[in-house]
Amino acid sequence: MKINKAMLQRLLPFLSLIILFVALSIASPYFLTANNLTSVARQTAVFNTMALGMTIVIISGGIDLSVGSILGLSGLIGTMALERGFPIAVGVLIGIAVGMLCGFLNGLLVTRLRIPPFVVTLGTLGIYRGASLIFSNGLPVHKIPAGFSFLGEGSLLGIPFVAWMLVICAVIVHVVLEHTRLGRYAFAIGSNKIASVYAGIPVDFHITAVYAIGGALTGLAGMIEASRLMTGQPTAGQGYELQAIAAVVIGGGSLNGGEGSVIGTLIGAFIMGLLSNGADLLNISNYWQQVIIGSVIILAVTLDEVRKRRAV
Amino acid sequence: MPLLELQDIEKRFGGVTALRGGNLTVNAGEVHLLLGENGAGKSTLMKIVAGIVRRDAGKMLWNGSEVFLGSPSEAAAIGIAMVNQESLLAPHMTVAENIFLGREERNSFGWVNRRAITEKARHLIEQYGFPLQAEWRVDRLSPAGRQMVEICRAIQHGSSLLIFDEPTSSLSDSETRQVFRIVRDLKARNMGIIYITHRMDELRVIGDRVTVLRDGGAVHTGNLADIPTDQLIRHMVGREVAQIYQRDHLTPGAPLLEVRNVSVEASRLKNISLTLRQGEITGMAGLIGAGRTELCRAIFGVDPVDSGEILIEGKPARLTSPRDAVQSGIALVTEDRQISGLALRLPIGYNVTMANVERISNFGFLDLKSETARSAELGGKMRLKAASPAQLAGTLSGGNQQKVVIAKWLFRESRIFLFDEPTRGIDIGAKAEVFELMSELARAGAAILMVSSELPELMHVADRILVMRQGRLSGELPRGCTQEQIMKLAVMETAA
Known about the structure:
The complex is a heterodimer. Chain A has one domain (43-243, 254-281). In chain A, 76% of the residues lie in helices and 1% in strands. Chain A has helices spanning 5-10, 12-27, 34-59, 67-83, 88-113, 117-136, 149-153, 161-179, 181-191, 193-198, 203-229, 240-250, 262-281, 286-311; strands at 155-156, 159-160. In chain A, strands 1-2 form a two-stranded antiparallel ribbon. In chain A, strand 1 and strand 2 form a beta hairpin. The radius of gyration of chain A is 19 Å and the shape is globular. By secondary structure, chain B is an alpha/beta fold. Chain B has 17 helices and 22 strands. Chain B has helices at residues 42-49, 72-78, 95-99, 114-128, 143-155, 173-188, 203-206, 229-237, 292-299, 322-327, 337-340, 348-353, 368-381, 398-412, 428-443, 455-461, 483-491, and strands at 4-13, 16-26, 31-35, 57-62, 65-66, 80-83, 161-165, 192-196, 209-214, 217-223, 255-264, 269-277, 281-286, 307-312, 315-317, 330-333, 361-362, 365-366, 416-420, 447-451, 464-469, 472-478. In chain B, strand 14 (307-312) and strand 15 form a beta hairpin. Chain B is globular. Chain A binds chain B through residues 178-182, 184-185, 187-188, 191-192, 194-202, 254, 258-259, 311-312, and chain B through 300, 302, 321-323, 325-327, 332, 334, 339-346, 350, 353-355, 357-358, 361, 364-366, 368, 392, 394-395, 408, 412.
């Protein structure tokens, strides 16, 4: 079979991930060890879970800049519930519910006020962060049952529990996007909102739903973060929105909407995770890591744009 | 010696000939009307004169010597300027800043001297007596005011030929009179003026001589006083009736959609009543801006109806959103399919099922196999030229894109079809296929409203033709009516 150029370009993010993986295996003896890979899985779990939510939002033509703050608020409220003696599972669900509520509010504001999601979520980025600080008085929550650390640090069948969680979430989001009405509407709305309205799609309802789902996944990410740190930090998640957006975009998602996939996002997230891990292993300074990741974002999107321009 | 003389101008875009035999002579101190149907080549000819497009063949003489213009600034340098139809002004800047936008004088620091351009603008405005102030912000101006800023932009160089492209299409009557006054004033200053318009009622108020373009060539030129309006219209529209419009006409069945005394203030629709029946294609003619698209939008629930009612199959319907309309069986094929009809970056299959995803879903889960099979089947029936339902809609040609839009509504099993300019921008072969589809729909019992600016199309496809003018229905004509009859209803005051 002849591998054509278009297919090669489509596979480029995946190939880059593999090349990166192989290169790191050669460059550092510590990379390809169970210890290191487990820690990569744990470190990237938070971003990856958030990025899954961001994928749906971006496909529907939206953006959520408030996810960092949502992560902080849901982690905080979830751990506060644990502090009050709620069972661990209930606490986690409360965290997810808080995230979902925040996302739902974002969706409501976007659809009711008819102002761009960039502006709405820039506003709620401040509001949700402020809410965390108000509820907590700026102090972290520490009195958390020890069993809670299992979510972020535990293992099941020798594989980190968060990795299982991520796989389950990824499969669910993939199925939602590709095999359900909601996912189909997200693509349609993101690709052409006016045409979607004219096709009789309940656009506002689905936009709101998309933000709520994104919020719920961010809520889960918040609980994972809290579990890994074993604290409910009101300031957790600052700046994470950019990581989540970058993962989606590197994975072929378009900020114009209508494009993106779970696989792409995961590849994007892992590329960033490996870059950061590799830089640590190779003793590249934290300062340079930021420069490298920034350059990768621009490079990835440029290559993707070139491919699309040729295709149409 | 004439100011401008165009001799046998030719222009091709790819395989399409936009102009051949473009002849036009304009004298200083005259208003020369340029008439023709959409697509007759008026805009292309004017773009050549204004240096926006280069000619492939033919001669352009300016004050008797041949010129080749490579850009609008070269045209401006010799004294030719165009007043844009769509406002290309920066809304947040002042009148003065807009007049000199891109041509600001800078002082020795490279700063724009705002006081100097305001002073120059004031001088220009005074000289021509425009009701404008140099300091006003452009977004506070009326459409006529903006038009005047555009005119100022065009004449600041001391141009000797001005081109107006439908300057009054979006203006009220009193604003139109202001523009006329300015045009006459410019004429009195011995400028040559080329004036494009679709409004037959304003021809004789403003024009001296006239040239009619049809199918890319000049078919008539002469003094306006020497030719009656009927004959001008015949020159504009007269062409051979093509075979492609043939269809068998059926006896109309039961009414599916009744519009009763509908008015929409925001889009200036007044008291419109019409009935669409099963098996009937109702044509709708009218000038651009007469309210035809707005009527479709009102029926489809996009714009709220202020008074009147809409009945579907005899029962009053509440259509407050496109969703209501779609669920009541109404389909809208919009005039701008790329903006409001298709998701260009999604596969054909997604587009086909978009208005009826329910039909391929079980408990919210999609049956993708059925989607592929059904859209392939529909595509086959419609002779859609596509590799597979997975091909992106944006990669199709105009005609095939239109077929996908129609397939979407077929898949929805809509029964009332509103076609707004269904053949815009598609080639003649695809047009015939679109008509065939409409015909088939009618045979299958659908009710169809077909809005079109192309009169031959309407006359041969529609069973009867409604004509709109300035937001009202100005009349109904039976099959077999003449283009002159339609144009009269479209442009002239109805005898009250």
